[in-house]
Amino acid sequence: MNNTLIISQTKKWILDVVVGCNFCPFAIREVKKESIYFEVIAGTNVIALKALSAALVKMDTEEEIETMFLLLPQNFESFSEYLKLVHGAELLIKKAGYEGIYQVASFHPAYIFADSNENDAANYTNRSPYPMLHILREESLSRAIDSYPDTSQIPEKNAAYARQKGLAYMLRLRTACMERAQ
Predict the structure, then answer these.
(1) Residue 170 is part of which domain span?
(2) pTM confidence score
């Protein structure tokens, strides 16, 4: 699979699912500004963490990048293995002195919330086309949260929306993103 297609499918998912379902009310601004950077990483935990380290440096030097997606189409199909990578990413951010500057959000095709089961439509709020690490600037996130009413209710509203739409709908919506995107 080629990187251009992977990025195109991910962009379609961001537009159709993340923005289209309003799962992240802050995403549309960055989509319009084209301040999102995408990189496809092929490899193991070690390679992915090296790529994350390089991504943090890139975000330090390129302030026009507001948020970054490291897309991991290989070697992270298992959700439990992916969660080990997320844990490693969080440790790397802390050890590298980036705690409070950047944070990682996690998305995976088989995402399951801890208090959920596999067939809960609410899992689709974090089910992406590919495993990925989403790097966010904490300062920007704090400003966005401060300007948005009642952000603490976003996860509950997202879960309620996904459940109201139903499992079949949410699955179709994400699957449509995997069709050959333009």
Answers:
(1) 3-177
(2) 0.93
